[in-house]
Design goal:
By secondary structure, this protein is mainly alpha-helical. The chain is built from 11 helices and no strands. Helix 4 (about 55-80) runs antiparallel to helix 5.
């Protein structure tokens, strides 16, 4: 997905995207109309259509905004001078902060009404997770915090577990929300790849993070 080109008066465009991000994540987008968006923003529909040709473009802009923000934060974590376990916790905090914003309506609408966009988002988080986890796991093995097992296998297990658990179809039948599912999965997975040294550090840090 290419980045949206911003004209000179992009502050207006940013305002629309910011509003729609909050609106769509909470209420979904399928039943939200452009008329409703214009009314709540107190602007004309013409102003919205100046930047976005359709509501679908607005949905894509919101998804792109979220992906860019997550990607930038992950990049900073990877490039930081922190030890691998601190990076893991920071990565967890970034992902959890995003997951907690998602409503079931938003995710269901993406899956049902914009399947190609949902596929793109899914591919993005998979590739980004591979890059981030690969770097951190390699560092952790050097530090003696993560067990010496094939990195590709560890990443594959992590990515596909999170992908299937933090998913509308799975959570629909469960008693916990997206954040709880993410926290439980993350804790179970990481306790399985940490050395005794790593577990001691993890047990001290992680309970403080999930409060």
């Amino acid at each position: 997905m290419a980045k949206i080109k911003k004209p000179d008066n992009s502050a207006e465009q940013d305002k629309i995207i910011q509003f729609c991000t909050s609106k769509f994540l909470q209420d979904g987008f399928y039943f939200v109309t452009v008329d409703q968006i214009a009314s709540e923003l107190r602007i004309s529909k013409k102003t919205i259509y100046k930047f976005f040709s359709s509501k679908d473009d607005l949905v894509k802009a919101v998804a792109l905004k979220l992906m860019n923000e997550v990607s930038d934060k992950i990049e900073k974590i990877i490039k930081s001078e922190n030890d691998s376990l601190t990076k893991v916790i920071m990565l967890f905090e970034v992902m959890a902060s995003v997951v907690v914003k998602f409503s079931e309506k938003w995710l269901k609408d993406l899956q049902i009404h914009t399947p190609e966009l949902w596929k793109e988002i899914d591919e993005f988080r998979t590739k980004r997770a591979f890059t981030a986890l690969g770097s951190i796991i390699k560092q952790g093995q050097i530090e003696g915090i993560i067990i010496e097992k094939p990195i590709e296998l560890i990443i594959h297990i992590f990515v596909n577990t999170i992908r299937s658990v933090v998913h509308p179809d799975f959570l629909y039948h469960q008693k916990f929300n997206y954040k709880e599912a993410f926290i439980h999965s993350f804790e179970i997975l990481f306790n399985g790849i940490l050395t005794p040294k790593g577990k001691k550090i993890f047990d001290k840090i992680f309970p403080k993070v999930i409060k």
